[in-house]
Structure formats: C-alpha cells, structure tokens
Fold each of these.
Amino acid sequence: MRVPLLDLKPQYKALKKELDEALIRIAESQQFILGPEVEKMEQAFCEYLKCKYAIGVSSGTDALLIALMAIDIKPGDEVIVPSYSFFATAGVVSRLNAVPVLTDIDPVTFNIDPADVKRKITKKTKAVIPVHLYGQSAAMDEIMEIAKSNKLKVIEDAAQAIGAQFKDERKVGTIGDIGCYSFFPSKNLGCFGDGGLVVTNDDELGKRLKILRVHGAEPKYHHKVIGGNFRLDAIQAAVISIKLPSLAKWSEKRRRNAESYNKAFVKARLSEGPGRITFNQRNPVLIPKAIYKPEKGPQPGEIATMVNYHIYNQYIIRVAKRDELRQFLTENNIGSEIYYPLPFHLQGCFSDLGYKLGDFPYAEEAANTSIALPIYPELGKEQIEYVVNKIREFFDKQ
Ligand SMILES: *Cc1c(COP(=O)(O)O)cnc(C)c1O
C-alpha cells in the first residue's frame, strides 16, 4: 500500500467541472489581477468568517507582512512570536527591521505559551503573533487579556487554521486585530498557486490594508504611505470561491481521520491516551517507544469551556526515535514530514538575536520529536490502519 502525505488530486477531481470552467472564464475575460473574482471571494469570506473586512493578498507570508505594516511596525519595535512555527511568522518581523522576540510553546498544543509572552513584554513591544499551529487555536483568551492590559496589537497567524474555532462561534483569525490566512496548496483551503487573506473588524485597519495592498496608493498614483504589490490574482480567487463551500466537510473528514488515528494508536498500545504526557520539566524527553497524539486542548468541563475546533492541517505525533521512524515509513511508502526541524532561536539568520540551545526546551523538544502523518480528507480508514500497523512494527523491532 502507498500512503502519500498529501494527495490533492481527489479534491480537484470532485470539483473539476467548476474549476475548469472558471479557468476558461478568466482566460476569456483576460482580467487577471484583483477585479470581480477577488471581490466575490472577499465577500464570501466576510460571511463565512463573520468579519467586516476580508482582503485577498498574494500569499500567507504577505498577509503577515501587510498586517504588520498596517499596524505600523517600525524598525526597532519588538513583536513577540513563538520560536516554533513556519519561518514566515518570524521572518516578516525582521523584514520590517523590527525585532522578533521569541517565546517557548505549550508542550501539549504546540502553540505559543501565554505565560512566556507576558515575561517577554518590554517598553518596545508593539504586537504579538499567536500561531494556530497545525489547525488548532492558540490560547486566545490569555493572549487577548495580556494584549489588552499591555496595549499590544494581536496579529493571528491562522495560515494553518482556516475554519478552526477557539470558543463559541468565533473562528480563529477574527479574534485579534488582524487575522492572516494562506491559500498555499498544502493548506486546508488551497488555491492553484500562492494566495492569502487578511481579515479585520476594524474600519481603519481595513482601509489601510486595502491601500497597502496596492503600493499604498489612494487614489491611484498618489501615495501617502508605502505599501507593496500584495495583490491576489483572479484565478486564485475563483479557485478559492469554488472550494470554500466544501471546507467544512473537508475539515470534518480530517477530524474523523484524526479520531481514527487516535483510536488505532490506543488499540496498538502505542498511546496512553490524551493528556498523559510525561515530561521531565527541566529537560523534556519522551519516554522511548511512546507516541503522543495531538491534544485537542481543554474540553468543555475541563480547564475552560472551550470548543477548540481543531481542523488538523497536520496530524502530529511525537516519537523519541523520530528520524529512524521517518526512514522506516519512507521505506514502506508512507509519506511523512518534519515540521519544523529547527526552531527560530537556533536558525542561523537569527543568530544576532542572542539566543542559544536550551533557551526554549519545549520548542526544541517539538522540533526533535515531531512527525506529521497523512491526514488529508480523502484518506481511507484502511490507509490509516496501515500507517499505525507499520508504526507498531517499527516499535516492535526496537
Ligand atoms: C504556510 C504558512 C505561512 C505562509 O504562508 P504562504 O502562503 O506559504 O506564504 C505562514 N505561517 C504559517 C504558520 C504557515 O503554515
């Protein structure tokens, strides 16, 4: 059996007729940049996300960059980000000559640790970027509370979490000042190239984002601010408009797959069940042979009354002999990926920030032990069982 990490072809097949028609329609219109296709998509997102402004941009990275520009991040300003995320989260801060101030993560959810955010606030701190990593909301109550009492802006990196919910009906990305999404093909809602979205409920920010998207021009060729080319093209917008109505169904399928994995791991005696992660607090190491399932975070009746609707952009397990397991999975035609092997504080490009090995033990532990398994919506139950059985086989050989 072959189980790829991600297979986008079934999704294309299911919507092929509409998608192909849209491509031809745009070819015939010869209107490629912004325009009615983008406006239609933006309107759909305002309704879906229940937000006032949704603005299509050129990528998830550009969504983060334009968001920081909109809140006027200046050289020397400090922006707090988790040390464990996709590079763009910290990269955009440095691109504005601001300083990414790093924090550790919560060892269970992989998301930014609010207590560490609090510790890192200085007079120069302007904003915090919680990342809803792997499709699960960060601890937004705590983040918003800290931001409010310290007058910080909150830019949500929801690139991996479109449709995820934290609490009540609010979708992640609409809780902070600006939410950022990516339509990179491997995200839960992917286009046919690069694309992204920024959302806000703030009138001033909404207007600013729109102007910044077109080089800061308002009206055309008149520039009071310096923006960039952050435009989204019509083809990407049309693809997203066609796919958006299916997103909820795909998220449900991903969740069902995660549940199948969870059950299969328990059955294979590879997991002790959620919430029993045993860490040595000072020097976190995993018990050899143990696998830890991604946590859903507190459930109703537990710590908070939190829905925490995880949409599983990735299904991550943690294994002490991670690299050996990955090798074994590859030999058995099972796709996997390491997100992210090196936390920000150990990246060469950030060496001048003055961090060192050991500064963020949970981020380092996640980087050393995490491995993503196939979780895409069309994955079959037999495939999931095959993956789990192979992992069992790997551990039996240890
Ligand atoms: C994918 C991703 C981005 C960047 O999105 P692109 O569309 O690839 O530029 C930013 N942050 C996170 C957490 C991501 O996963």
Amino acid sequence: MHLPTLLLAALLTPFIAADCECGYALTLDAHPPQPDERHVFTELTESNFARLHAGGDGDIRRNTDWAPQAFNVSAERGRGAYGEMFSARNIDMLAGDGGLRLTVGSELVRGMVPTAEVATRRLDMMWGTFRASMRLTGVEGTCAAFFWYFNDTQEIDMEFLSKDFNHANGSYPVNLVLQSLEAAAANYDASHTGSFVRAYLPFDPTAGFHEYRIDYFAGRVRFYADGVVLAQMDGPAVPVTAGHLIMRHWSNGNKLWSGGPPERDAAVVVKYVKAYFNSSSPKRQGDWERRCRNPKELSAVCDIPNVTAKNLAAQDWFFSENANMTNNQTVHGLNGVSGRRVEAVSGVMWALLLVSGCALVLL
Ligand SMILES: *[C@@H]1O[C@H](CO)[C@@H](O)[C@H](O)[C@H]1NC(C)=O
Ligand SMILES: *[C@@H]1O[C@H](CO)[C@@H](O)[C@H](O)[C@H]1NC(C)=O
Ligand SMILES: *[C@@H]1O[C@H](CO)[C@@H](O)[C@H](O)[C@H]1NC(C)=O
Ligand SMILES: *[C@@H]1O[C@H](CO)[C@@H](O)[C@H](O)[C@H]1NC(C)=O
Ligand SMILES: *[C@@H]1O[C@H](CO)[C@@H](O)[C@H](O)[C@H]1NC(C)=O
Ligand SMILES: *[C@@H]1O[C@H](CO)[C@@H](O)[C@H](O)[C@H]1NC(C)=O
Ligand SMILES: *[C@@H]1O[C@H](CO)[C@@H](O)[C@H](O)[C@H]1NC(C)=O
C-alpha cells in the first residue's frame, strides 16, 4: 500500500471501527486473584458544554439532554438562614472554550440566595458510570453538588463546600454521601451515618478542571476524582431504583454546611457531563435487544476511555462526536442540542474526509 492509502485508511478507521450498538464497556481494576471487572452499559448521554456557544446553541433552555430548574426553597424547608431561588437566570455559557456556568449570587432577592441547577431530562438511569468535569469556585460560602437522585432517600452525592477549601495548607475536602432511610432518620444529616466519607482531593479543584465520577452498581457505589478511587460504599444505603443526574450550585447561609451567602458572585463551570448507564425503561430495553445482534462482534461493544492524571486526553473523547457510535441513542447530535442532528455532523465529517481523501489521492 502506498502512503496516501495508508493515511486515508488511518483517517477512516475511527469512523468505521466501531458501532457500539451493544453498548459501552467499563473495566475496573480488581485485586488479584480476581480478574478485572467489565460492565457493559446500553445507554449514553454526553454533553460537551465547552463546545456550545454563548447566546446560540448554548442556551440551556434549548438543550435536549438537560433542563434548567426553577423553584424556590424557603429558609425553613432548606434548614438555612435564607431561602434559595433556583432560576435559569443564574445559568449561562462561558464564551470560547468555557462551559456551563452555575452562579450563586451575593445579593439576596426577597430573602433568597440566587442559585442554579440543571437536571438530565432522562429519568431512567439504572446503574451507570457518571462523569462531570468541573472547575469549582474559590469564593467561600457555597455548596457545589454533582449527584444522582431518585428521592430524598435514594440519592448519591458528591458535595464540595467552598468554605472548607484551605489554600494555605492545601486541604480540599469533598463530601461523599448516600442519602438513605438512615440519613432521613438522622434528620438528613448523613454525616452521622455509615454512608458518609469526607475525602481529600490531591489537587486544588478551584484552579482547573477535573473529572469527578460516580459509579453506581447493584449494591455498590464508587466515587472518583481523575480516575482515582476516593471511596467505595455498599450495604443497605445503596439505592435500588432508577434516577437522574443533577448539577447544583447553592447556598443558604447554614453555617454548618454551605455557609455563605458568598461575598461576591461565585461560579462553578461544568465543561462536560458523560453518563453511560442502563435504562429502566422497557421501551429502551427493547430497542437494545433489536439493535444488538451479536455482542461478540468486534465493534459491537465500545470501551469507555479511562480519564487518569496520566491520560487526561480521554476527557476530550465523546462517542457522540464520532459517526455511527451512537446510533439509536437519544443524544441529539453534537452536545444534545436540538436542531443540530448527528446526521448533519457526519455529513460534514464525510465531506471533510472526501476532501482530504481527494487531496491525498492527488498527491
Ligand atoms: C454508518 O452507518 C450507515 C448505516 O448503517 C452506513 O450506511 C454508513 O456507511 C456508516 N458509516 C460509517 C462511516 O461507518
Ligand atoms: C446492562 O444491560 C445489559 C443488557 O441487558 C446487560 O447485559 C448488562 O449486564 C447490564 N449492565 C449492568 C451493569 O447491569
Ligand atoms: C421565586 O420567587 C421569586 C420572588 O418572589 C418569584 O419572582 C419567582 O417567580 C419564584 N420562582 C418560582 C419558580 O416560583
Ligand atoms: C424513596 O423511594 C424508595 C423506593 O421506592 C422508597 O422506599 C422510599 O420510601 C422513598 N423515600 C421517600 C423519602 O419518599
Ligand atoms: C488545614 O487547615 C484546616 C483548618 O482550616 C484543617 O481543618 C485541616 O485539617 C488542615 N489540613 C491539613 C492537611 O493540614
Ligand atoms: C481502563 O482501565 C482498566 C483497569 O486498569 C483496564 O483494564 C482497561 O483496559 C482500561 N480501558 C481502556 C479503554 O483503556
Ligand atoms: C431506536 O430504534 C427503534 C427501532 O428499533 C425505534 O423505534 C426507536 O425510536 C429508536 N430510538 C432512537 C432514540 O433512535
């Protein structure tokens, strides 16, 4: 084969190598003598917020995977000094290679702190690996939460309290929590239950983006930062239902938890969220059965790349940004925004390939 053909083959390979019609595989390190564990998930939701544009497709209200939330919480109900006012007004897209910005305002509005939340539209996430790349705020007095939720006693949380970050001694805690019936009995203070771990991050989470991750399996939950396990929990507090993902940035002045309100506006930026999961929906299970003809076929199951400190490049991998790797998935083209369908994107890729192919042949 002469060089141009080889180059063309190399260019084409990523697009024809995999179809992923049987799912996305996660491999976990095991300790010998057990072999590594491999789990296959049939569904995905990938949102590359950094690729969206302020004002245009970055308008969160147009997103087909995520919905901005609007609700008010009274001081009493939130057990805070102030109420919380969740509104789409506190959510916007950073220009350039930014991400989704969730802002907690410093100015009270009718006794409420302006706060921000987005939630996945899909509610059928039953087991999965959920990853969010975030840069946290260095402004004291907020709680940033990345969590999986069904109800107040079926919930998996990663919560970051900006007042607890200590730049002087490099101490950056994250609270890992399963909200359970036991936590409910303790007045939703999970820190008095067995399913609460305060872990310390090996980096400054306000200085840059890092990937935070929750793996939810039957009877077991693992929490990670940049691919390193922070904690594992099992037992009766592990949820047993399907649920959805929420990104929330809030404050209510409770000195024992969020503190605040912040002295100036505080922003958390979300670069992406990637979720690979199984569905509790019989319709989606049926779709998978029709779609997955032979799981043993080479390209039928695709490996989810591991994000680690040594392999940060995996952060930039999105199945949904490649042709034919998300057929029959509900991701609506680039970044889950309606109006930009995946067919159009693959059309552009094909045009590019044809152009580069022609150029190579001409060489
Ligand atoms: C994508 O799938 C369609 C339908 O099966 C097929 O016609 C097309 O050739 C595939 N494209 C690539 C790049 O594999
Ligand atoms: C997800 O569903 C597929 C298809 O039913 C199944 O083969 C796989 O084991 C499930 N994965 C998990 C982690 O339960
Ligand atoms: C929250 O309260 C503000 C101020 O009273 C009000 O304008 C807004 O409509 C409320 N939001 C919702 C979702 O009810
Ligand atoms: C949450 O859902 C579980 C499972 O359906 C149920 O047992 C539990 O009582 C619910 N908790 C609340 C607070 O409603
Ligand atoms: C850093 O200081 C805080 C008090 O602000 C303390 O709680 C924490 O234990 C210290 N961490 C380290 C690693 O010294
Ligand atoms: C991810 O890491 C696991 C455990 O170290 C390994 O077995 C697996 O092959 C890796 N997956 C990929 C896609 O590199
Ligand atoms: C998946 O394929 C089935 C047909 O097998 C179809 O009914 C369904 O609408 C498709 N779903 C998506 C999200 O493309």
